[in-house]
Design goal:
Helix content: under 10%
Shape: elongated
Number of strands: 14
Strand content: 35-45%
Oligomer: single chain
Number of helices: 0
Order of helices and strands: EEEEEEEEEEEEEE
Strand order of the largest sheet: 1-7-6-3
Distance between the termini: 61 Å
Structural class: mainly beta
Length: about 170
């Protein structure tokens, strides 16, 4: 399962038992804030289903005890719950603290991907904000060139762009 989703599009989840079982069915998959469908059997211990979020919040996926049995008639144990974050909120636009000839740096959502674009929209470089939200990258813009920066979070939501002023990489002369 993905760790985060940003739409109500279905995503696939694999259910794997430690040994071959029988009796496991789509109705045995308990989903909070969504539902399971498109159930398939890969082999006697591996199954998959598509989980469709209902936009009601984070999605919890559970398999209760006693829904499948092995060849000896032993019931399965409760599976560890899987939670998928439902995130449709775009991150806050990044800030730029330094914009000089050699470095661009600033702040963004922690763990998010920071993307630098030229003024024509061409992607020039990416980096990742650290756990405190700080980021820094070698400046891919040339002297006098402008651009923009966006942030994309783990769910795939992208912020509005922050403009990068014209880079001034030329030292003043005396």
């Amino acid at each position: 399962a993905p760790t985060a989703v940003n739409s109500t599009s279905p995503f696939s989840v694999t259910f794997e038992f430690s040994e071959d079982v029988s009796g496991f069915a789509v109705g045995d998959i308990l989903v909070t804030n969504g539902f399971a469908g498109n159930f398939t059997t890969t082999d006697a211990n591996t199954y998959s289903a598509d989980i469709t979020p209902d936009a009601g919040g984070n999605i919890a996926i559970d398999v209760s005890a006693n829904v499948a049995q092995d060849a000896g008639g032993n019931n399965n144990t409760t599976a560890t719950q899987v939670t998928v974050t439902y995130d449709i909120a775009a991150p806050t636009a990044p800030t730029i603290g330094t914009s000089n000839g050699s470095t661009l740096s600033g702040t963004a959502e922690a763990g998010a991907t920071v993307t630098i674009y030229a003024s024509d929209g061409t992607e020039l470089a990416t980096t990742t904000a650290d756990e405190s939200g700080n980021w820094s990258i070698d400046n891919p813009l040339s002297d006098g060139q402008t651009g923009s920066i966006t942030v994309t979070d783990s769910a795939g939501n992208t912020s509005s762009a922050t403009a990068i002023a014209a880079v001034d990489a030329t030292a003043p002369t005396a």
